[in-house]
Amino acid sequence: MQVDDILTNLLGLFSNPVIMIATLWIIGVVIAVGLRKKPKGSKDVSKQKKQKKSKGKVKGHLIKQMQKMEGEASKDKKLSVPPVRSRQEIITDIFESKTSAIGLKASTASGYVPVSYTPLARYLKERNVSEDTVSAIIDGIMEEESEEDVKAIIEAAADSPGVNLVGAELEKAKELAVEEWNNVRDTSES
Question: Please, what is the average pLDDT of the chain?
Fold first, then answer.
């Protein structure tokens, strides 16, 4: 008879709506947790192995570069620095890829984003002028009040180290700088 009494007491508990709702909620949570857990099959294991291998390759490559540089430093040789893209190049590439993905082409006439694609910037880069120097020249040009001041900036830059502009190249750079300055001035007046 004890079993009958226990069953009667349990059924009496479930007659209370609060206990009934709480019990159903707990059962639902247990079922949801059981369904969310995926059994780890062969596909998941192979994905994990591939991810570990690719991470290992990157780490291995970086470690090899570091070891090579360490060896060169210990032998007092010139360090072979791996090629590195500048922050501006990375941002410009991302910007350009996103705009081209939606069918737009960035304007290069205004001198704004991306600066590295203006005609003057390209011309200077073709002559191995560093990215920082190109940015400084373009920033300086945009602040000037007259064409003579723009030409003076190009002449001053030509005298600085790392900028080898003479003769026709210097004149072409002045021409491009004045053209760019006029384009920016025209767009800001509009």
Answer: 77
